[in-house]
Structures
1.
Amino acid sequence: MKIDLLSPASFAAGQPHDQYRWLREHEPVRWHDEPGGRGFWAVTRHADVWTVDRDFQAFSSEPTIMITDPLEGVGQGFGPYKMMLMMDPPEHTAFRKLIRQEFTLPAARLREDRIKALAKQIVDAVIEKGECDFVAEVAGEMPSFVIAELMGLPLADGRELYKLTEAIHTAPEALPPGAGAAAVAKMFEYGSGVIAEKRARPGDDLASRLLACEVDGRKLEDAEFLLFFLLLVDAGGDTTRNLLSGGLLALMDHPGQFAWLMADLPERLGPAREELLRWTSPVIYMRRTARHDVELAGQQIREGDKVVMYFGAANRDPAAFERPEALDLAREPNPHIAFGAGAHNCLGQHIARIEIDAMLSEVLTRMGDFELPSPPEWLPSNFISGPKTMPLKFKAR
Ligand code: HEM
């Protein structure tokens, strides 16, 4: 079996489940070469991904969670500053605490009515047309509006920011030279405007609260705020979008399961949403770096080695799931790790679940007879998986 988990071509039609299957069965912790880089260990079994993600003493999130190392001397952020996603406890714990309250289940529930209203507004905008690009016009709208609301920004700005996110997550070779870096620069430029605006006129929003809060008895530096801003915009955008588009595709591919869901949508949506998370696993990987020599599933990992967790592979591991290759919307239990498993587990997961439920309820009750006039085009990325465009025909129900 040819194994290539780097080439965007491997992800051009969804995640490479045939490669994942082979790896889990034959080399669950396998050395993977990296053109222009040091190479890495690819970890594909559920139990091993779980171990790596939870053991931050052995597997560090520094200097980065991307496979490519930061350029020498440039670092991953601004000078000494890092994004929370690339910190280890106890530093990570202190930073996560700053925004944790905004993302608890009760805090997320307070947003539920507003999120449902946004879902209605999004479907209203396409329902008469009978066709749309489901990714841009439906699925992508929700997370970009929600992040704008969280941050106290105009909804239309959320849409622009989310376009930048997509460029940041696309493989550099699939973009014009420098486009990824330009997108990050634009994001920071916009974030600097937010700093000025929220300092002058603080509001009841996360951006204003972040600018007012303290870590180690001091206010956040602008660079620290910008890195938080980038993380929040980045983390919740195309992940949620891809779950929605990929989830609808999965339903269309499994008409029996789709019919089962529709027979009692309100009751069945919860387990169905979890199964769609397992099935699509929008975050392909997170990288860690070994802090010391350590053994993992019989492989000797050396200090400094890169160790990459493949969530989509773990989520189809027969050791963790019965009939993992079957979409089973009633699956129970469903120990998927699409949101990660350790100290960095997805902070936005409660909001994400509310967004997903609101959108799926709205789409599936008001739209039907779905047809794909042409095949969806997938995001050329080895980091985030999902359709980039998905022309869809439908009828209003
Ligand atoms: C279907 C949607 C989503 C998926 C699949 C997803 C998945 C993930 C994953 C896999 C991680 C890393 C976990 C780890 O390293 O163990 C993560 C982290 C994170 N996610 Fe999500 N996410 C989603 C939506 C969101 C949303 C809507 C937000 C915010 C509004 C969000 C905010 C974050 C943040 C802030 C982190 C970093 C947490 C930390 O470093 O402590 N995510 N997410």
2.
Amino acid sequence: MAEPNSHSEDMVPDIVTQAIPDDERLWVPQAENVWFRPLFLNTVTGEWVNLLRVRRSGVLSRHRHPAPVHGYVIKGSWRYLEHDWVARAGGYVFEPPGEVHTLVCDDDEEMITLFHVCGCLIYCDEEGKACGFDDVHTKIEMCRKHFADAGVDEQVLQKLIR
Ligand SMILES: [Fe+2]
């Protein structure tokens, strides 16, 4: 009988990486003054973990979540236009399914937040109508294109995909 903590051949490899990278090329541009750093991209469960970095009054388009999102603020602060609270370094945020919001960073100081996103972001227009989306597959495509343009080894991305 196998030891409870023994390694199984069915297990996928660990991911152990410098989350805030020394290599600037690992930040993937998402919008003006907005980047993400992929950490875990799961094509089986449709979820991903990434760092979001916003500098100088960046805005992440208004969107809705059909599934939960967990966030942990590592650096700086930000808020949602639709709420009256401010997320600050050390803070935890839970975004329930159904939540619609627009992330803004008012400070000149950069903010970095770790987000665990399940499902997708459904982008919404002024009337709340869906006008686009991001899911783990579009995130992977964005990474693939940016890394190819920036000359990052394909294996760097491949190691983050499950
Ligand atoms: Fe969100």
